Amino acid sequence: MKNRSTILFSTLTAMLLVLFVVDLVFGSIHISPSNIFDIIFNRNNGSIESEILLNFRLPKAFTAIIAGASLSIAGLMMQTLFRNPLADPYILGVSSGASLGVALITMASAMLPAMLVNSGWAMIISAIAGASVVLLLVVGVSFRVQNAVTLLIVGIMFGTIAGSVVSILQNFSNPDAIKLFVMWTFGSLSAVTWNYMQVLLPVSLAGLFMAFMLHKKMDGLLLGENYARGLGIKVIQTRFLIVVATGLLAGGITAFTGPIAFVGVAIPHIARGLFKTSSHRILLPASLLSGASLLLICDIISQIPTYTLPINTISSLFGAPVILWIILKKK
């Protein structure tokens, strides 16, 4: 079993590195692998290829890795917390909160200065603020409710309320503002520049660190909350930490890239199928590598047509069949 896991982890790591290089090669302008290495190790190269690689494709590829890893880990934690195979990172309403923040900044343009509305940072800050408000509400409720199912319903209700406010804003907004908001909901990896990466990376690393530190407690939660208490696990505290970690991972990614569907719900099942285990010590790194690889594949496929396709479209094509397979398997 240990040898099999080692081989699988080695394969996933090698696949991730290959996909990373392939993602840098393909695009509107083909850049050969030899040119890529020359440009990376000689940053004084002032060619167009150098500009495209260093300022567009590299941050986009790193964003795909960070987003895929973060959403996959967040999805795994949600499925463990709720013991529901169809739970995803956005089930607590974090995505809806981020959408509400972006909707307020894009559709309330008549009440805000044009400079603020058109700023990239304004959309990101508003998305983080919206996700944080919903997350804080869910965290507050998590201390009062006794079981995870109630917390699940609370998260869905907060998401529904945020979605309703967004619909009201759309009804009173002009077509240009609605188009800007809809484009954000499609998801985009290319919107993250090196400046944004300085914020996105620490937030995601903090969430990933918390997730890996909780792996033993999550193993206990799989056996049920009462059994976990019998093992000495502080269930409410653990639930709180899982919610915070999920908020950091899903909220941070959504703020910078827009919502990316199905990665968080599909990848944990792929990891379980590959490694044939429910141990989070194995599933956490397996989901991280698998999620990063999947989003790189989605990014590569989105570059094949003449026009770049929204990343949400490609991830849904991969994720939806996995969900159907889960439903049919579980009957």
What does this molecule look like?
- Helix content is 77%, strand content 0%.
- It is globular.
- It has 331 residues and is mainly alpha-helical.
- The protein has one domain: ABC transporter involved in vitamin B12 uptake, BtuC.
- Helix 3 runs parallel beside helix 9, helix 4 runs parallel beside helix 7 and helix 6 (120-142) packs antiparallel against helix 7 (148-171).
- It has helices at residues 2-25, 33-41, 48-82, 94-107, 114-117, 120-142, 148-171, 175-185, 194-213, 215-221, 225-230, 235-257, 263-275, 280-302, 311-330.
- The protein contains 15 helices and no strands.
What summary fits the major beta sheet?
none
Order of helices and strands: HHHHHHHHHHHHHHH
In whole angstroms, how far apart are the ends? 29 Å
What structural class should be given to the helix and strand makeup?
mainly alpha
Mean pLDDT: 84
Radius of gyration using CA atoms only: 20 Å
Quaternary class: single chain
Helix content: over 70%
* CATH fold naming: ABC transporter involved in vitamin B12 uptake, BtuC
DSSP helical segment count: 15
Q: Please mark out the parts with pLDDT under 50 across 5 or more consecutive residues, or reply none.
A: none
Number of domains: 1
* Beta strand count: 0
CATH class: Mainly Alpha
Task: Tell me the CATH superfamily.
Answer: ABC transporter involved in vitamin B12 uptake, BtuC
Percentage beta strand: under 5%
| Shape assignment | globular
The name of the CATH architecture is: Orthogonal Bundle
